[in-house]
């Protein structure tokens, strides 16, 4: 990789501005400079992109394809510069040219093609694949509108469309020549060929063209450039004659064109709540049909092997069930186009697909109405039916003990198609995303499947790319770390463990403390600039940033804030370390209770932040439009990482890992990867509270929890709930009644009241611990030291060796 100096870059930026824009630097805007720099980066990347593809082809390496409806990429200029080893030079060049690096980077709109954890995980995985020299690529959809932009108006969430492609996106290349045709609806006719085999012909299908846009995925200083291929839906260009004819039905045609383009029109903004919308089903089939066609075309072209050898050269990971129609699509092409027999096609298919489960929430599990699939994808439906038939037969004949369970196991049952069942039956690997999550899958949610296929189930605890989430977002911390233990940790993140040797070194701890404080000042400035609110940079920055969902219990957090406020009102002189509670969260647009919680947080904030009687000891900040770029600002400044889901509900969490890596201490329940964090750092370096997963599951199964008992016996709880009910936090007295009712009349389904007292007690421990700076910083450094374990490099190595069986090239 060539060394590019700041002065080289400066010159190239100047030159580019003249050639492309006909302007001198003095007249250039941040945007001009952003595009100039991006195109210089592209110039560097493209030869390596080409070479990487050549290399994979010539080595005939096995490839992994990560199929995902979501890739939550965020911005790319800074991370591409970083991975390309040009970041320092670029910063210097920009400053010398009179630009603030940050403002130039901020010209790039986040590519928010994902909802939350699942989509961000996909993006981290691509980064690790490329950085570890693995031949691995992503397939997704190029949504014209990403996840909505959130505004808070009078405390309420308002959604605006995210038209992120308004300005040209410099990282994508349209590759029209690799377009493929996707067919929906129509009629299937079956014929017998002379040799007795069956032939399927489709009539009157709706055809759509899938056009790929490729985004380079740059490995860290290793010349590897993999590909993220995003498909865009377009009408099939007709011949001149056809267009003349169509012209007659111009308006009908516009309508039709619009409905085609809608397929890649927008990202569904729900996360963990499933709705059987036909357009979403279309999107899913659009993604998988184009990707599978592409994969097979490439296999045939580059490997010159029979399709029976596909599993030796190709493995496909499906990110949750969303792309699981890839399974019948593969069967369809192998049988109908490639003339394989069922058994041969099944053997290939079941050795190619691996499935990751990301949730056990029953409301998030995908099941489609049978009729919808039959109508939209008639041939796919026939194949699913056949898979189901054979699977049910195998239970009936080979597993008598499960005969009664067939309705609960069948892929098609009571008029619905169960996608998780389809994925489990047809994949060679089924993995959960944290130890406890995988155990719950095996012992509860997928118990019978586990007994049928024990060898398929495995765990792959999630991870995060330490390049973006430490090196890039927290350069000061990265520098101190490298000063202390050298910079090998960047390539081998587990080496962060060497920090442990220094976790009692007073001078060093003070240095870490100083870095954290500087990061807090930066965030405080940003908050001031965004909200006009001044926060105390000496206060504890207590952070909860994630999607808003009842099970994540932002409500528990704000109840605690209300409690503190009530206490302070009674005793304003109370000796207490000042606290700043920082929230960032989007709610699904139709998720009423989640939106009520957003309103509650904002309402509490508007009271607390302006009440001078509490002497600035408490501030509540809700930052609007939480996204990857905002996370990058907040995480380096966090002291406390709130990970307080109802135990058993959060499959893994990845924000917990990001904050840990930046020296925040986790305040959390024994859920998801929190448990693995606890196991590493030990009870002394984490704040754990609340019900365990077993206790929660036991309550769900056998009852025994009564929220009203707590309401009637705990005055603190009663006071808060009554305040909600009586309008103490609202303009109208009905303001938060629904939250009140949900807790008392639906018996607090997420155990907020049950965990309230232990949560308060644990917060008191936090407050006391924070007073002892050195002990706190010792805990903080211990967390950073162990965080290397959660680099997605580690996760990807495990996927590669246990599931994918791919080698580094
Ligand atoms: C479900 C649906 C339902 C249909 C509409 C669109 C949509 C989009 C996403 C989902 C599934 C959400 C599952 C999910 O995001 N799980 C999260 O995955 C993270 C990565 O494994 C994990 O860290 C989080 O704990 C888990 O909640």
Automatic annotation (TrEMBL):
<dbReference type="GO" id="GO:0030170">
    <property type="term" value="F:pyridoxal phosphate binding"/>
</dbReference>
<dbReference type="GO" id="GO:0005980">
    <property type="term" value="P:glycogen catabolic process"/>
</dbReference>
<protein>
    <recommendedName>
        <fullName>Alpha-1,4 glucan phosphorylase</fullName>
        <ecNumber>2.4.1.1</ecNumber>
    </recommendedName>
</protein>
<comment type="function">
    <text>Allosteric enzyme that catalyzes the rate-limiting step in glycogen catabolism, the phosphorolytic cleavage of glycogen to produce glucose-1-phosphate, and plays a central role in maintaining cellular and organismal glucose homeostasis.</text>
</comment>
<keyword id="KW-0808">Transferase</keyword>
<dbReference type="GO" id="GO:0005737">
    <property type="term" value="C:cytoplasm"/>
</dbReference>
<keyword id="KW-0119">Carbohydrate metabolism</keyword>
<comment type="function">
    <text>Phosphorylase is an important allosteric enzyme in carbohydrate metabolism. Enzymes from different sources differ in their regulatory mechanisms and in their natural substrates. However, all known phosphorylases share catalytic and structural properties.</text>
</comment>
<dbReference type="InterPro" id="IPR035090">
    <property type="entry name" value="Pyridoxal_P_attach_site"/>
</dbReference>
<keyword id="KW-0328">Glycosyltransferase</keyword>
<feature type="modified residue" description="N6-(pyridoxal phosphate)lysine">
    <location>
        <position position="658"/>
    </location>
</feature>
<dbReference type="InterPro" id="IPR000811">
    <property type="entry name" value="Glyco_trans_35"/>
</dbReference>
<dbReference type="GO" id="GO:0008184">
    <property type="term" value="F:glycogen phosphorylase activity"/>
</dbReference>
<keyword id="KW-0963">Cytoplasm</keyword>
<keyword id="KW-0021">Allosteric enzyme</keyword>
<dbReference type="Pfam" id="PF00343">
    <property type="entry name" value="Phosphorylase"/>
</dbReference>
<dbReference type="InterPro" id="IPR011833">
    <property type="entry name" value="Glycg_phsphrylas"/>
</dbReference>
<comment type="similarity">
    <text>Belongs to the glycogen phosphorylase family.</text>
</comment>
<keyword id="KW-0663">Pyridoxal phosphate</keyword>
């Amino acid at each position: 990789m060539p060394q590019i100096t700041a002065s080289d870059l400066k010159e190239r930026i100047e030159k580019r501005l003249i050639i492309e824009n006909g302007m001198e630097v003095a007249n250039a805007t941040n945007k001009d400079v952003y595009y100039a720099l991006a195109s210089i980066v592209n110039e560097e990347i493209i030869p390596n992109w080409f070479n990487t593809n050549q290399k994979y082809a010539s080595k005939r390496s096995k490839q992994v394809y990560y199929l995902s409806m979501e890739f939550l990429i965020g911005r790319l200029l800074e991370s591409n510069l970083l991975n390309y080893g040009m970041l320092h030079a670029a910063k210097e060049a920009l400053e010398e040219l009179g630009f603030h690096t940050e403002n130039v980077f901020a010209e790039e709109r986040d590519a928010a093609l994902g909802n939350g954890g699942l989509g961000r995980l996909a993006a981290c995985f691509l980064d690790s694949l490329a950085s570890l020299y693995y031949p691995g690529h992503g397939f997704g959809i190029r949504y014209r509108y990403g996840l909505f932009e959130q505004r808070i108006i009078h405390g309420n969430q308002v959604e605006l469309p995210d038209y992120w492609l308004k300005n040209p996106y410099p990282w994508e290349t349209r590759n029209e020549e690799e377009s493929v045709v996707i067919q929906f609806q129509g009629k299937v006719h079956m014929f017998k060929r002379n040799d007795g085999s069956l032939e399927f012909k489709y009539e009157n299908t709706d055809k759509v063209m899938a056009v790929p846009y490729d985004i380079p995925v740059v490995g860290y200083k290793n010349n590897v450039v993999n590909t993220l291929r995003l498909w865009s839906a377009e009408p099939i260009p007709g011949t001149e004659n056809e267009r003349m004819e169509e012209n007659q039905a111009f308006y009908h045609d516009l309508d039709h064109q619009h409905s085609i383009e809608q397929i890649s029109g927008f990202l569904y903004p729900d996360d963990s709540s499933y709705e059987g919308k036909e357009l979403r089903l279309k999107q899913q089939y659009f993604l998988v049909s184009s990707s599978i066609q592409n994969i097979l075309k490439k296999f045939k072209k580059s490997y010159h092997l029979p399709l029976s050898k596909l599993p030796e050269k190709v493995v496909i990971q499906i990110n949750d069930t969303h792309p699981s129609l890839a399974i019948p699509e593969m069967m369809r092409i192998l049988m109908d186009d490639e003339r394989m027999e069922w058994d041969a096609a099944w053997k290939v298919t079941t050795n190619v697909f691996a499935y990751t489960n990301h949730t056990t929430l029953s409301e998030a599990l995908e099941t489609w109405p049978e009729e919808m699939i039959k109508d939209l994808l008639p041939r796919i439906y026939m194949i699913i039916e056949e898979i189901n038939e054979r699977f049910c037969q195998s239970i009936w004949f080979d597993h008598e003990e499960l005969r009664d369970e067939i309705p609960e196991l069948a892929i098609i049952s009571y008029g619905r198609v169960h996608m998780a069942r389809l994925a489990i039956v047809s994949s060679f690997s089924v993995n959960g995303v944290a130890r406890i999550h995988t155990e719950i899958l095996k012992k509860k949610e997928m118990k019978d499947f586990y007994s049928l296929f024990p060898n398929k189930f495995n765990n792959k605890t999630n991870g995060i790319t330490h390049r973006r989430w430490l090196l890039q977002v927290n350069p000061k911390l990265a520098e101190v770390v490298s000063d202390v233990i050298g910079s090998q940790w960047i390539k081998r993140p587990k080496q962060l463990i060497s920090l442990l040797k220094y976790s009692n070194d007073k001078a060093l701890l003070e240095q870490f403390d100083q870095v954290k404080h500087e990061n807090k000042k930066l965030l405080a400035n940003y908050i001031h600039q965004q909200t006009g609110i001044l926060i105390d940079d000496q206060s504890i920055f207590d952070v909860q940033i994630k999607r808003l969902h009842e099970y994540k219990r932002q409500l528990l957090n704000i109840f605690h804030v209300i409690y503190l406020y009530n206490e302070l009102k009674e005793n304003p002189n109370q000796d207490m370390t000042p606290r700043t509670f920082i929230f960032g969260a989007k709610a699904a647009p139709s998720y009423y209770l989640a939106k009520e919680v957003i309103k509650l947080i904002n309402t509490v904030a508007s009271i607390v932040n302006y009440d001078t009687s509490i002497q600035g000891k408490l501030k509540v900040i809700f930052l609007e439009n939480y996204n990857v770029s905002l996370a990058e600002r907040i995480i380096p400044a966090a002291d406390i990482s709130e990970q307080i889901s109802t135990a058993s509900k959060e499959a893994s969490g990845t924000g917990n890992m990001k904050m840990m890596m930046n020296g925040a201490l986790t305040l959390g329940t024994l859920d998801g990867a929190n448990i693995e964090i606890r196991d590493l750092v030990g009870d002394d370096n984490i704040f754990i509270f609340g019900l365990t997963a077993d206790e929660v599951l036991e309550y769900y199964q056998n009852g025994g929890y009564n929220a009203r008992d707590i309401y009637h016996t705990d005055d603190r709880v009663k006071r808060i709930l009554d305040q909600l009910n009586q309008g103490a936090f609202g303009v109208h007295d009905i303001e938060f009644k629904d939250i009140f009712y949900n807790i008392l009349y639906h018996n607090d389904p997420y155990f907020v009241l049950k965990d309230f007292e232990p949560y308060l007690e644990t917060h008191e421990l936090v407050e006391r611990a924070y007073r002892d700076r050195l002990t706190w910083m010792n805990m903080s450094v211990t967390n950073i030291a162990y965080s290397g374990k959660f680099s997605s490099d580690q996760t990807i190595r495990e996927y590669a060796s246990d599931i994918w069986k791919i080698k580094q090239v």
